[in-house]
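Give me the fold.
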Amino acid sequence: MSLQVLFRGPKLAASLLTHAAGYAGVLLLAYWLRGISLQADPVLQGYLQIMTGLLAFVFAAVSLVRFQGTQDRISLILGIGFLLLGAVLTATSVLFFQLPRDAPVQFLWAPVAWWVSRTLFALLLIVALLVERFLPRALHPPREIVGALVMVVASTYLITSTLKRLPTQVSPHLGAWLPDSQQLLPGVIFLLSVVWYRRRLRRERTAFDRAIYATACVNLAAQLAASQSEQLLDAPFALAQGLTVIGDATALAGGLLDNARLFHQVHYLSVSDPLTGLANYRKLLDVLDKETERSDRSGRPFSILLMDVDGLKKINDTYGHLVGSRAICRLADILKMNSRTIDTAARYGGDEFVLVLADAPEREAMLVAQRIQEIMLNDAEDPKISASIGVAVYRGDNSKIEKLLSAADQDLYAEKPGEKKRSMARTAG
């Protein structure tokens, strides 16, 4: 613990210096770009704004899908934020298409619509954190999504209607160190979100959270670049727009990666046993179907081991159900360590397990069963556990899976204490 405290300070200082150097570099680059004459193209700017809006729409959809699956309200608020951002940018892009391509651009500074959309987005980043802190989980996700969509439509209409009545330029300060100082207002909000999301990464390290943090950082850099804009569509403003696109693309990539992770996790949970981590009954049947089809085509047999923990009820009565569950997990761990990558270990139900041995004849299956029993016999953990193991072999004779499992079950009970020891494995067919 002392080492963590010792090294946290230098790491934090290095991170702060790296961020400060990066933002200073962006500010100096934007200042240098003021000396470059860039011919304004309103139509190109309109298409760029539409593309940024489309990226925001796609991320909003990804974020809302994540919210529907996790009930994590930060996903809902960020989805609303990007949806509102995309709506405002797409709606106000019409203003650029109304400007003649060959006419001189009379508007000074970055457009008010862009400033408003940046401010709203920065505020929603903070709101998302506040909502997550006080109301982290949603009780009625579909209702909240519908309410959010209605709010976005109403907000977009009010914002675009207001923007039409605002002046087309801000007080000009041509040649000043900060020609467009109003861009620092959303920049300050983005700075707060950067600090807050950085702290949040200490407990949440998913691709989604890292992408949102990176998006806040890039948007802060975009506001610094926009503060150097002296005229609409000049070089610093183009840099700011480019950084905005990068930020939205980063958020979208992180959202897609995290959703892919969540979908993979859901799939894993749907085919695995929650106690042991082995395949569940559903996955077992799927594996057996594939193995029987392959064996029917190739004529090569495969084997299964059906086993259960001996005396599990006595263990539960003597030591408690937690120890009984631990006994089940101990057998599951043994199966994991003693199966090949092409084999499948599954929990059949209760204290019963099945090990599917691909391309394994009867003799090999018997050796595996013997090895498993020896490992349990030599296990030093108390209480001692043992398992009865039944063996069955599928020889590619088009018999049913139920018959294979029944053969293994009969062989298992022949192995139970007091029963006659088996002389050979029963086979299905």
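The radius of gyration is 32 Å.
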